[in-house]
Amino acid sequence: MQTGEVLRRVVFNLLDAAKGGKLKKLKEVNKREIAEGVTPEYMERRIDLLLDYVKNHSPYYKKHPEWTKLEDFPVMTKGDFLEHYEEVLVENSKEQGNLYRLSTSGSTGTPFTVLCDGDKMNRVNMNFISCMELNGFRLGMKRGEFRAWIKGKNTISMWKSFKNNLVMVDISNMGDDSLEKICKDIEKKKIQVLVTYSSALTALTGYIKRTGRDISKWKVEMVFSMGEALPDATYELTKEIFGFSPVRSYGNNENGFIAIQLGEDKEYTIDLYNFYPEVLKMNSDEPAAPGELGRLVVTDYYNKTFPMVRYDTGDTGIMRMYQDEKGRMHGKYVEIYGRRGSLMYNCMGEPLSIHVFMNTLLKFEGVVYQAKCIQWGQKEYELLVNADRKKLVEEDLIAAYRHYLGEEADIRITYVDEIPIQASGKFMVCENKWDGRK
């Protein structure tokens, strides 16, 4: 246990206690409800309160008083929310101030920012801590967050990094030189928790195994996997290398963590305290049959600024709901699919994280609606772009992609009105059609 960890935990608890211990209470309730389930009455009450709220405060839902139960409300994709963005926002929300931005481009390649108030932001943060603590995390532990960090867009200040004991681990490039630097940083900075996307964890563990790197001096006690589904091979290799299993999670930037793996349970336990989950048929909004693969749809109980009722996450999976002997409800994602982007390579043949392409699009929010990068050859790339051409500066877009693909990248732009989706109901932000790397 490191001194910095203990100090931060003490300071957090003291500051929270001075404000009535709100965050600690929220965290403990969240942990209990995830682990022990919720009552059917809680789920019914939360839905009723939310639907009543949106019909009174959101212009989009106000127009439809005939929608009385959840099934009456439309299933909304990211594109639907963007189309009706100003209408969905509750009245006078922007004038109230103190709003937070939950931004994502997602694997569908569509930039999207959800506004929320301080209460929802606290719930997002405590939800994250709750999911971690249920798997052994201690508040204040030094964690390395693996992302494609973009200066001026998603990086954090030195003060915030110090306060949260967080190290920004850049995964823009996952070539051997970059992976070696990441390994050195993990050891030198005594990182205790790796919070990483599946693709980055796959690259890191593969590198450690392939090079026989000595990690005996590492202080890593926990590996937390998020984003795209973690392959079983990576799960087992992580367990072999570190001596403990990685934690699988499921969520998004718009809502927070939706489900978490507890212990060695291969299923994901759904957070029924914060969300109402549904699985709908692939080609209709009818409920999927038990055990049937369908679209993952969630209703967020607590975003009172930008209500997300029946949000189609773009992912697919299988869910089961059951009631225990105490009458409490539990939800499990038996399988989660989606977010399976093709592995892309830069001009030097080094693999790139799918999140490079996601985060690049954040720079062009409001100008580029959709974009997909296709690799046709070692240095040949095509950008399918659905954008406002009057506002878009082509040179800036190409430069943003070339920053990661390499200066020798031959990038051509093809403008489209819409990027075709896959049979799963999604399209990926990148695709590799180069035979040399398939």
Automatic annotation (TrEMBL):
Gene3D superfamilies: N-terminal domain of ligase-like. GO terms for molecular function: ligase activity. SUPFAM superfamilies: Acetyl-CoA synthetase-like. InterPro entries: ANL_N_sf, CapK_Type1_Caps_Biosynth. The keyword Ligase applies. Keywords: Ligase. PANTHER family: CAPSULAR POLYSACCHARIDE BIOSYNTHESIS PROTEIN. This is Phenylacetate--CoA ligase family protein. It comes from Blautia faecicola. The lineage of its organism: Bacteria, Bacillati, Bacillota, Clostridia, Lachnospirales.
